[in-house]
Specification:
There is one protein chain. Helices cover 22% and strands 45% of the residues. It has 3 helices and 8 strands. Strands 1, 2, 3, 4, 5, 6, 7 and 8 form an 8-stranded antiparallel beta sheet that branches. Helix 2 runs antiparallel to helix 3. The model has no long low-confidence stretch (mean pLDDT 87).
Length: 154
């Protein structure tokens, strides 16, 4: 896979979670080497990526974008996308999610060309909290995931 995974959580949300504003399909923290990439379309979720080191490259909606440290990209995985390491490594957090208001957040990001530059360190602690939650498949866990998605997006 060409990735050093720090934590990888593929999570299947419950029927209860699908009634929440946001539900999560998976999240992780990757440190990818130079040959890492993903190319796909038709996945029923949105993807938020946040670069903390190195650099990534995203080909999406007719454009090509560099994913630099401190930047986030939000994409609709139903659309074609290619993303991978630009250079020798790319360290980033990611989360796949969906839910009723997801399209509103995406449409706002789409108008901003998919990227939201954050002050250094703003998203990293939120992703670290997400990854530190013990997975227990309870309603409480799914409510916490929903809340963290809201915080990540706003």
């Amino acid at each position: 896979m060409n990735v050093k995974q720090f934590v990888n959580t593929a999570y299947t949300s419950s029927e209860f979670a699908h009634n929440l504003p946001f539900f999560v399909d998976g999240f992780s923290h990757f440190d990818a080497n130079a040959s890492y990439f993903t190319e796909r379309e038709g996945m029923e979720s949105y993807l938020l990526m946040y670069t903390v080191g190195g650099m990534g490259r995203l080909v999406y909606e007719g454009g090509e974008f560099l994913l630099e440290p401190g930047h986030a990209a939000l994409i609709d995985c139903r659309n074609y996308q290619y993303y991978g390491t630009a250079g020798t490594h790319w360290e980033f957090f990611w989360i796949h999610f969906d839910g009723a208001p997801a399209a509103v957040y995406y449409d706002t990001a789409f108008r901003q060309r998919f990227f939201v530059p954050y002050l250094a360190g703003h998203l990293k602690p939120l992703f670290e909290r997400l990854l530190a939650l013990p997975v227990d498949y309870t309603m409480t866990y799914e409510l916490r995931l929903c809340g963290l998605v809201v915080q990540l997006l706003t």
